[in-house]
Write a structure and sequence with these properties.
The structure holds 2 protein chains of 2 kinds. Chain A has 5 helices and 11 strands, in the order βαββαβαββββαβββα. Chain A is α/β, with parallel strands linked by helices. Chain B has a 3-stranded antiparallel β-sheet, covered by helices on one side. Chain B is elongated. Chain B starts with a strand and ends with a strand. The mean pLDDT of chain B is 95.
Chain lengths: 231, 78
Amino acid sequence: MRFGVVIFPGSNCEQDAVHAVRHLGFEADYVWHGDTDLSGFDALVLPGGFSYGDYIRTGAVARFSPVMGEVVRFAERGGPVIGICNGFQILTEAHLLPGAMLRNSGLKFICREVPLRVEDSCCEWLDLMPGDIVHVPINHNEGNFVCDPETLVRLQDNGQIVLRYAEEDGSVTPDSAPNGALDSIAGICNERGNVFGLMPHPERVVDPVSGRTDGQHFFTAIARRVAEVAG
Amino acid sequence: MARYEIYVTYKKGIFDPPGATAKRALDNLGYAGIEDVKIGKYIQMTGDMSEATVREMCEKLLANPVIEDFRIETVEEA
């Protein structure tokens, strides 16, 4: 099981992602944004950071990096792609996921741990049950997810909403999203369930040294599913 | 050489946090009657390309059609 962690100029969470994956006993290697060969990788991680300085819009320039053509083809073949924070923003800009990100409603960069509720979704990459609460840090300025009303209905009907910002008791209120995200959306997947984008950083809560291990489920699930698909 | 001015603005109905904050600040300064403030981007571009090409650039990179509209003004023809 080998993860590829893509580095764009300005990515800054790639080492955390590689450390998390290796900590769980899987192989991980970096993929430079100029590379166009993804052979040998079973799963891809687009890590957090500030690719291309967040110029124009978050993820807007990274989306045209040479590697992204291959990332799109990898996803079209059904390969697991997880985009974390800036990685999520890149996936929306690349149209692998619907919607877009606005500035946080409070205009503040938010860096803290938040409770998330796992939703009943078609995402294949979770070893968690609907209704489970996990605590994962967020660290972003543009996590205010938005999409048009028709897209939101489609996300809800297809089970593409994977994670919602929640209260400590697991309830979700209109105010649960610290960034103002529509429908308290913290993470979504594509219709097929193999491309998953989320604003929280599960890679930061894998190694017990960080105080929590809630993020382990996200990566073990990818490995489990890849093994299942491989038969 | 052509010169273009491009305005990128939020689509109707998209909440603009910086615009809303600017409005609140202006309200606090005592300016009455402000209904809405929206903050967008202004891009200047010069070079040898047609307006049709600039339009393509906007659709592809400079604006995000999910949340933004754009308007191109040709200041000098090619």
